[in-house]
Amino acid sequence: MERTEVAEVWGEWVGGLRGWQLFGGLTFDQRRVPSEVILGVNVPRVMSRDVAAARFRRWIRRAEGALRRRVDYVAAMESQRNGWPHFHPLLDLGRLGDGDIETLGRLWFEENGYGRLEVPRDRAAVCAYSAKYLAKDLATGDVLVSRGLGRFVPFQMPWERTGRSGQ
Questions:
Q1: Count: domains in the chain
Q2: Does residue 163 fall inside a structural domain?
Q3: Helices 100-111, 49-67: inter-axial angle, 10-degree rounding
Q4: Going by DSSP bridges, is the β-strand pair 113-118/22-28 parallel, antiparallel, or unpaired?
Q5: pLDDT by residue (tens digit) across 65-98?
Q6: pTM for the structure as a whole
Q7: Which residue intervals of the chain are DSSP H helices?
Q8: Pick from 156, 128, 166, 152: which is nearest to 74 by CA?
Q9: Are 35 and 164 in contact (CB under 8 A)?
Q10: What counts of helices (H) and strands (E) characterise the chain?
């Protein structure tokens, strides 16, 4: 199975897990991370993937508190050209209320940086988004999955369960 076919299968699978209300991109403002002084020179720190993942999960917890409901997610973490991590999440809020997008954006901005969250046009758009951003990061393990979805994450690839060959 070719890489594009694998991405499509993953996209369909992830796209069908939930009725995703939002998708987008979340980046970190590098100016908010202090630099270190090494031999008298300011050297900017690069945020580790573990710290980035912890900050993403903290944002989800804050979002759940502010929205007063559970937020399920699947989020691909990848590196920008400069080495800094950023996220491409799919979010299931249970329902999308007035002001939810603004609340989530404000909470991300307050502690981390810049974000763009959008309502998908349809399920096909979610599947295409999943295929593009999530499939490539599943291979490296850089996908964060909420506890509510953890039981749906397979121990084998989706095409192995359907009988399609991975070759």
A1: 1
A2: no
A3: 140
A4: antiparallel
A5: 999 999 999 998 988 887 889 999 999 999 999 9
A6: 0.80
A7: 3-17, 49-67, 100-111, 123-129, 135-138, 147-150, 158-161
A8: 152
A9: no
A10: 7, 7
Cα separation, 65 vs 29, whole angstroms? 24
Structure tokens at 44: 């900017």
CATH number of the domain within which 107 lies: 3.30.70
Residue 166 lies in a domain: no
Q: Which residue in 102, 92, 83 sits closest to 15, CA to CA?
A: 92
In eight-state DSSP terms, residue 78 is E
Answer yes or no: is 165 within a domain. Answer: no
Q: What is the pLDDT of residue 160?
A: 46
Distances (CA, A) of 132 to 12, 67, 138: 11, 29, 11
* Structural domain containing residue 61: 3-149
Residue 167, in any domain of the structure: no
What was the pLDDT predicted at 140?
58
> What is the spatial distance between Cα 111 and Cα 50, in angstroms, rounded to a whole number?
16
pLDDT tens across 27-76, in order?
A: 999 887 766 777 887 776 778 888 899 999 999 999 999 999 999 999 98
